[in-house]
Design goal:
The protein has ten helices and no strands. By secondary structure, the chain is mostly helical.
Length: 208
């Protein structure tokens, strides 16, 4: 990759991180429900806790904005670098991971109390691999509907994403998907413990 492209990539990765760092749910719930998500329910700033704090409209708005944080930087990278060739695909993956990392460790919140990254990852892979995204979405819906627990759906989607991307897009984008999926699993470690113990809150719960 020529030097100008590397500089552009560096700017895109930093910009993606800063975009991913915007705490959409925290800002929406603070503005419209006068609640600090970090001290409410699970303490997570993502869409599920936002729904519990502010109802479905604010939960869905948080979901949409968190998806957008992944889709916009990744889409811009695809527009600038294209989708073919290992250097272009590796660069796009770095931008996507940058946006995802911003949501997990937002600079605006002192690198703490970030979300779990599922919606932002979804935004990235809506751009990177439409059909792999649809496969993960189908798994998410099935697992969530069966268990009534969003975390179970998120874990199931994260598990299927890397192999789906590998089959559909090849090893480079699949490596990016694997990195993101592993980080999603790590961020859900407390949820996994609660799922195993039967204490994980259901989607319909309001204040847990």
């Amino acid at each position: 990759m020529p030097l100008p492209d590397i500089l552009i990539l560096a700017v895109l990765v930093v910009g993606a991180y800063l975009a991913g760092s915007v705490p959409s749910g925290l800002l929406l719930i603070r503005r419209f429900a006068s609640i600090d998500l970090r001290t409410f329910g699970s303490g997570n700033i993502g869409a599920t806790n936002a729904k519990r704090a502010g109802g479905w409209p604010l939960g869905l708005a948080t979901l949409f904005l968190d998806i957008l944080k992944g889709a916009l930087p990744t889409g811009l990278a695809v527009l600038l670098f294209g989708r073919t060739g290992i250097p272009a695909q590796a660069g796009i993956c770095l931008v996507a991971i940058g946006a995802f990392a911003g949501h997990l460790h937002p600079v605006y919140l002192g690198f703490k109390t970030g979300g779990k990254g599922v919606a932002t990852a979804a935004g990235c892979f809506i751009i990177l691999s439409h059909y792999a995204f649809l496969a993960a979405l189908g798994m998410f819906i099935a697992a969530t509907a069966t268990t009534q627990r969003v975390s179970a759906g998120s874990l199931a989607a994260a598990a299927i994403l890397p192999p789906a991307v590998y089959v559909l897009e090849g090893p480079v984008l699949a490596t990016g998907a694997l990195v993101i999926s592993i980080l999603i699993l790590v961020r859900h470690r407390e949820n996994i413990r609660r799922l195993l113990s039967g204490t994980e809150p259901k989607l319909t719960d309001k204040h847990r």
